[in-house]
Specification:
- With about 170 residues, the protein is of the alpha+beta class.
- It has one domain (about 5-165): Thiol Ester Dehydrase, Chain A, CATH 3.10.129.10.
- Helices cover about 30% and strands about 35% of the residues.
- The strands form two sheets. A five-stranded antiparallel beta sheet has the order 2-4-5-6-3. The protein has a two-stranded parallel ribbon with strand order 1-7.
- The chain binds coenzyme A (COA).
Length: about 170
């Protein structure tokens, strides 16, 4: 089903960090959710490209992005991305985002957001191509892999239901 021998989760983990700036704020003075989403998409993209061994991969969907607490100017925000699961041409990338506060209120990095994205490997004609199977290595990788399968099935069911509904129109 997948190309090659498979790629271990540890081979494609990616980390991307950014110190939040005044230009990253929304009208309320907090960091704009879209800034966090961009960082998440970029970290997931780097992870997907690594998993595809340098091949091209594009974002096809982002779901379940939860922003649990506000982020502020000066916070060092880091996105950690890893491949949770693979289909034939698609990969689910999970991203965990933390913020290290520089206002003295919290010392350890705080979990501020989580997201799941689907990337698809594409060929030179922009058409989907098979990606390596992911190889979970730790108990946490295996838990994420099992949960990715559940989300994948749910996405497929959702897509099929929408398509079926359109056929009826
Ligand atoms: C990625 C793209 C080529 C896929 O084309 P497509 O015609 O949907 O391809 P398919 O129906 O064959 O699906 C390909 C894979 O994507 C998955 N997929 C497609 N739409 C999906 C959706 N809405 N949610 C989750 N997965 C989806 C399919 O399940 C399939 O996975 P699998 O091979 O592992 O089973 C096309 O959707 C595209 O070009 N999208 C724009 C991507 C982009 O520009 N992103 C922003 C810049 S990076």
């Amino acid at each position: 089903m997948n190309s090659g021998q498979g790629t271990p989760v540890s081979a494609s983990r990616a980390r991307l960090a950014h110190v939040m700036q005044i230009t990253d704020t929304n009208i309320h003075g907090n960091i704009h959710g879209g800034v966090i989403m961009k960082l998440v998409d970029e970290a997931a993209g780097a992870c997907a490209q690594r998993h595809c061994r340098g091949g091209r991969a594009v974002t096809v969907a982002m779901d379940e992005m939860v922003l649990s607490v506000p982020v502020h100017v000066g916070d060092l925000v880091t996105a950690y991305a890893s491949v949770n699961g693979t289909g034939k041409t698609s990969m689910e990338i999970g991203v965990r985002v933390t913020a290290e506060r520089f206002d003295g209120s919290v010392t350890a990095p705080e979990h501020v957001a989580s997201a799941y994205l689907v990337f698809v490997g594409i060929d030179e004609n922009q058409r989907p191509m098979a990606v390596p199977a992911v190889i979970p290595e730790t108990d946490e990788d295996r838990r994420r892999n099992t949960e990715a399968d559940i989300r994948r099935q749910s996405r497929l069911d959702h897509r099929a239901a929408i398509e079926a509904s359109r056929q009826l129109r």
